[in-house]
Amino acid sequence: MTVETSYVVFPEGDTQEIPRRLSIGQMVDHNGHPLDLPLTTARIIAFRVVKIRHTETRGMLDILHYLELIPAFELMEYVR
Question: Is the entire prediction scored with pTM above 0.85?
Answer without folding.
Answer: yes
